[in-house]
Amino acid sequence: MSYSRNKGLEINSLTVEYQEGHLALEQMDLCLPEHSIYTMIGPSGCGKSTLLRAIAGLVQSYTGEIKFNDQSLRKQGTALIGLVPQNYGLLPWKTVHSNIRMAMRISDSGRHTKGQQEQQITSWLTAMGIADLAQRYPLSLSGGQQQRVAIARAFAILPEIMLLDEPFSALDAITREEIQTIFLENWISHPTTTLFVTHDVEEAILLGEKIVVMPSNKEEPPVIIDNPVFQISHEDKRDSDEFFAQTKRIRKVMQEKW
Ligand SMILES: Nc1ncnc2c1ncn2[C@@H]1O[C@H](COP(=O)(O)OP(=O)(O)OP(=O)(O)O)[C@@H](O)[C@H]1O
């Protein structure tokens, strides 16, 4: 299936200042065409989480513009956004199932029947390998299990924009590879406009159509790198010459910009 690419997500001159004199982001510009997936890496404190939180509407005191298909995201309800935050963002007093169910109820606005929603929840929990945890509460789960619930919840609401803040950081290496594959398969069948923050260079190369490298100097613009590895079939990526060349290229940019 081919998707039209509208303007998508546009960040124009975004500046966030939590405390006077301390800029978390300074005049940042970035564009992600609709239905694209970009990965982002950057040094700690360069403003990656702040960017995701501003797009998601959790940070409102910013200057500049954030638009999706020409509509300002300042207006609530402009676009349905799925956010997987670093702290997972689960409600501790709700079970795993209820956490996902509630997000779907809020976002669905009558598009799907209760039965269809239940089917979706079961299918996402199964895909994430946590179907047996449906009736548990978040605080009784490991970090990696909570992370998988947060990912299942973000997928289940079928968002127009997906924002992920180091979503696989708490997973062991094998589970991480499995979930990366599931994640990418899902993105291919539902190509939501996606910005994926990671500290892992390999993960950035495996999952991004383009890779955004944030500089440590906030006055400098992000470096956007084309990623030919994205075109290679997922299981062959790690062993390809392009993957090694891309790793070298990105490390060089990191050395220059961090
Ligand atoms: N709620 C807040 N109040 C004050 N300052 C904040 C707040 N949140 C973040 N900051 C500051 O804003 C800057 C950017 O933080 P942010 O969390 O966006 O960086 P990051 O690139 O996501 O870092 P990391 O990779 O460590 O998660 C940092 O200097 C941080 O200390």
From TrEMBL:
<dbReference type="InterPro" id="IPR050093">
    <property type="entry name" value="ABC_SmlMolc_Importer"/>
</dbReference>
<dbReference type="GO" id="GO:0005524">
    <property type="term" value="F:ATP binding"/>
</dbReference>
<dbReference type="InterPro" id="IPR017871">
    <property type="entry name" value="ABC_transporter-like_CS"/>
</dbReference>
<dbReference type="InterPro" id="IPR003593">
    <property type="entry name" value="AAA+_ATPase"/>
</dbReference>
<keyword id="KW-0547">Nucleotide-binding</keyword>
<feature type="domain" description="ABC transporter">
    <location>
        <begin position="9"/>
        <end position="241"/>
    </location>
</feature>
<dbReference type="Pfam" id="PF00005">
    <property type="entry name" value="ABC_tran"/>
</dbReference>
<keyword id="KW-0813">Transport</keyword>
<dbReference type="GO" id="GO:0016887">
    <property type="term" value="F:ATP hydrolysis activity"/>
</dbReference>
<protein>
    <submittedName>
        <fullName>ATP-binding cassette domain-containing protein</fullName>
    </submittedName>
</protein>
<keyword id="KW-0067">ATP-binding</keyword>
<dbReference type="InterPro" id="IPR027417">
    <property type="entry name" value="P-loop_NTPase"/>
</dbReference>
<dbReference type="InterPro" id="IPR003439">
    <property type="entry name" value="ABC_transporter-like_ATP-bd"/>
</dbReference>
